[in-house]
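Hi R.,

As promised on Friday, here is the backbone we talked about, encoded as structure tokens. Could you run it through your design pipeline when you get a chance and send me back a sequence?
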């Protein structure tokens, strides 16, 4: 039978078998002891230590485990392309930075109009991926996902316009113009 049970979180106050949140259930050959944490733990690394002894004074070897709490998704900063960009260049570079303080490494995926654009290399928290736009409006979705599956997403809308403008009319008013007189040149352009 368990005589003493002691659990410490990050070396703090001892939690014993009589503490709130501790349940000891008899099982074949011993006990199953659970503890429901009573106060929220902060994001980051934590260590628990457990000491147990029986009624005969025999102490088990101390057990310790380290774990990480991460409630925040990774950061994601997309520096290019700018949202609403209109360009005549079919290839654009998607660039940015991403990081997660507690659950690195972070992976990045990029979709263009719903199609995955392939592997994206993240080095020293930075990434760059060249993609080829379709004529017209394009939606680029950049997603950063940390090692425990939390993600952050940024969407950019970019327009590829490779059609040159068309001059449909040039008009001079009045026509003909007397020397030294004021006149207006009117140009009609579409596209």
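Update: got your reply. Pasting your designed sequence below so it's all in one thread:
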């Amino acid at each position: 039978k368990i005589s003493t049970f002691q659990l410490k979180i990050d070396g703090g106050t001892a939690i014993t078998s009589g503490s709130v949140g501790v349940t000891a259930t008899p099982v074949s050959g011993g006990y199953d002891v659970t503890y429901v944490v009573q106060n929220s733990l902060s994001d980051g690394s934590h260590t628990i230590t457990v000491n147990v002894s029986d009624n005969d004074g025999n102490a088990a070897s101390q057990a310790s485990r380290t774990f990480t709490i991460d409630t925040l998704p990774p950061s994601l900063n997309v520096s290019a392309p700018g949202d609403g960009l209109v360009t005549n260049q079919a290839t654009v570079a998607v660039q940015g930075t991403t990081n997660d303080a507690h659950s690195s490494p972070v992976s990045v995926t990029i979709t263009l109009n719903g199609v995955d654009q392939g592997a994206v290399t993240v080095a020293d928290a930075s990434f760059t991926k060249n993609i080829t736009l379709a004529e017209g409006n394009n939606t680029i979705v950049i997603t950063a996902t940390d090692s425990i599956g939390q993600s952050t997403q940024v969407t950019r809308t970019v327009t590829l316009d490779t059609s040159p403008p068309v001059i449909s009319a040039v008009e001079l008013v009045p026509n003909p113009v007397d020397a030294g007189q004021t006149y207006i040149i009117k140009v009609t352009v579409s596209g």
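One thing I noticed while checking it: The longest strand covers residues 44-54.

Thanks again,
M.
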